[in-house]
Design a protein that fits this description.
- The complex is a heterodimer of chains A (239) and B (198).
- Chain A is of the alpha+beta class and 239 residues long.
- Chain A starts with 5 loop residues before the first strand and ends with a helix.
- Helix content of chain A is 33%, strand content 24%.
- Chain A has 6 helices and 8 strands.
- Chain A is elongated, with a radius of gyration of 20 Å.
- Chain A has a 5-stranded mixed barrel with strand order 1-2-3-5-4. In chain A, strands 7-6-8 form a 3-stranded antiparallel beta sheet.
- In chain A, α2 packs antiparallel against α3 and α4 crosses α5.
- Chain B is built from 8 helices and 6 strands; from the N terminus they run αααββαβαβαβαβα.
- In chain B, α2 crosses α3.
- Chain B starts with 5 loop residues before the first helix and ends in a 5-residue tail after the last helix.
- Helices cover 41% and strands 13% of the residues of chain B.
- Chain B is α/β, with parallel strands linked by helices and 198 residues long.
- Classes of the chains: A alpha+beta (239), B alpha/beta (198).
- Chains A and B meet through α1 and α6 of A and α7 and α8 of B.
């Protein structure tokens, strides 16, 4: 794959950076053209590195890199701009988005639409207020990109159209299934399912049920290994 | 596997120093043994001594040999202000500005949600207890302007929001003497977002 060895000014976001050797950083990036790519930013942690102010998560960057194999080498990083730095709750939500991508997105698997969606979601996050609709809609887009698009229009058992007045449970493989009683999995109203299908989270009950539903579906995809960024939400709530 | 000789053990131990790889570790070990045995002796003793006597200051969480560090014990410092920094190195930098005369709290880290570093892993619970004395009127958050430093600042502001305290954040922007032409784009963009009224 000769054409893959050198890439110039590719749109990318940094998902996370880990200290590597004495002064370098190991970057997990999300690029538009190649999906998740890992690369080493040599000397990025040295005191006078010009990369210091550039290699920030949640900022659109233009990255150039070279090398073959799992780990590439960063050649250049340019600031694209246009995205204000995240702060407050928006920043916490940003960490959650990045952890989802780090955990669920396989390496070097391009997801152009998801890249656009991620960028759009960053812009929708608000420092104080309700970022939940943006998160729910991203979670759904992520599952869809991974090949687990949610069925939100028909009952997975009977095939009947979702009735807004009925109650459902959601089977990760089969979709919504009408139920009458309470149970261990979260219950969702037909109305909430239809709202989610339209990305409409105006109704507080829809918001609440969508949150519980997406949490169980994402946990299922994560094989029930907990997300670290959720802990900080819990700690903040416990204050 | 045979157990390492004293020399191998020394080389291996030296590698815990920042910037010291296997080659440098070997060079340092040979140098100490061949040319500077007194220096080696002194190094061994001072390392041992420091490990024995240095502990955390009861008030600011930084390193000290006493119950309270010199800064926290000084009557000349303004005890109504508390500046929160990530590391002792940051504290030193703040001191060099000569602009601040209050007290400090050193977190010894920052929140990093993706590395699983939460409020308990850094000294945030200790800080909350530290603030119970009621003397502090203003908390100045001087964590780094990285996403992790900002997350720490956000957590601190949430933690203190119901207290009768002024919580401030150090400003960021174009450096002193900075010419716009040479400032990095991100800094300039943020300086614009955080512009102030003249």
């Amino acid at each position: 794959m000769v054409e893959r060895t050198r890439q110039e000014s590719r749109e990318a976001f940094i998902l996370h950076g880990y200290p590597y050797r004495e002064t370098s950083l190991l970057l997990e990036t999300f690029t538009r053209t190649f999906g998740r790519v890992s690369m080493v930013a040599r000397g990025a942690r040295s005191p006078r590195s010009p990369l210091r102010g550039v290699l920030l998560a949640f900022q659109p960057l233009a990255l150039s890199w070279f090398g073959k194999g799992e780990l590439r080498t960063l050649a250049r990083a340019e600031w694209v701009g246009g995205q204000p730095l995240l702060h407050g709750e928006a920043l916490m939500c940003g960490f959650y988005l990045n952890e989802l991508l780090l955990r669920l997105l396989p390496r070097e698997d391009p997801h152009d639409a998801l890249f656009t969606r991620y960028w759009e979601t960053l812009r929708r996050l608000v420092p104080h207020g309700n970022s939940a609709p943006a998160l729910r809609s991203f979670e759904r887009a992520l599952l869809k990109e991974l090949g687990y698009a949610m069925a939100l229009e028909r009952d997975g058992a009977s095939g009947r159209a979702i009735d807004p007045a009925k109650t459902y449970r959601y089977d990760p493989e089969r979709g919504p299934i009408e139920v009458e009683d309470a149970g261990p999995e979260p219950r969702v109203s037909g109305r909430a399912l239809l709202d989610m299908g339209r990305d409409d989270y105006a109704d507080p009950q829809t918001q609440q049920q969508a949150k519980a539903l997406m949490r169980t579906l994402i946990n299922h995809r994560l094989d029930y290994q907990p997300l670290k960024s959720r802990q900080i939400f819990r700690d903040l709530l416990a204050l | 596997m045979k157990s390492p000789t004293a020399l191998e053990e020394l080389i291996e131990a030296l590698r815990c120093l920042p910037g010291v790889g296997p080659k440098s570790a070997q060079r340092i070990a040979y140098h100490l043994l061949q040319y500077d045995k007194t220096g080696a002796e002194r190094l061994a003793q001072s390392l041992h001594g420091a490990l024995q006597s240095i502990r955390r200051c009861a008030k600011c969480n930084s390193f000290t040999e006493l119950e309270l560090c010199a800064l926290c014990g000084s009557p000349r410092r303004d005890s109504s202000q508390l500046c929160v920094v990530e590391t002792p190195g940051d504290l030193l930098m703040m001191e060099q500005t000569l602009a601040y005369h209050g007290l400090y709290f050193v977190l010894m880290g920052r929140l990093s949600p993706l590395d699983g570093i939460g409020p308990r892993e850094i000294g945030l619970d200790v800080m909350q207890r530290r603030l119970a004395d009621g003397e502090v009127k203003e908390v100045i958050v001087a964590t780094n302007f990285t996403n992790e430093g900002e997350a720490t600042a956000h957590y601190i502001s949430e933690m203190l929001k119901d207290r009768d305290l002024r919580v401030t954040r150090i400003a960021r922007g174009v450096p002193v003497g900075g010419e716009l032409e040479y400032v990095d784009t991100g800094t300039l963009a943020q300086a614009f977002v955080e512009r102030r009224l003249l």
